[in-house]
């Protein structure tokens, strides 16, 4: 399947799943999984930084449009995309630097740390913008941590279900 078509379908499917399924999950009245960010996590590592940021902006903007959240998702996605190269370098080291990184062939601990860092970063910015009050930092951190754990579990489950046969 064409790479552009594959990522386009993934984009649309994740936005729809987030809107119609994952946004309805409201555990303990404040924990929401933001599973759509798996799109940013799984973008090709050799894709230009500008394209990753543009696609991330469009992803966040799509969620903002449907959730009426005034740019919070777009800002969080763009920030996650902006620091993505640093997180890749941190999690995968020399493999990322030499452009020899194959996600499914890396050690599980490296994959999990990369996924977790992207989720935490995205969620922290999202909830910081939602509360927009540093006096509520404990609430921001609490919502970030709990939502990140739930998002992480859903993303791991999704990656296991749809694991590529090509390794």
UniProtKB/TrEMBL annotation:
Keyword Membrane applies: yes
Membrane-spanning residues: 37-61, 73-92, 112-132, 144-162
Keyword Transmembrane helix found: yes
Keywords associated with the record: Membrane, Transmembrane, Transmembrane helix
The name this protein goes by in its record: Rod shape-determining protein MreD
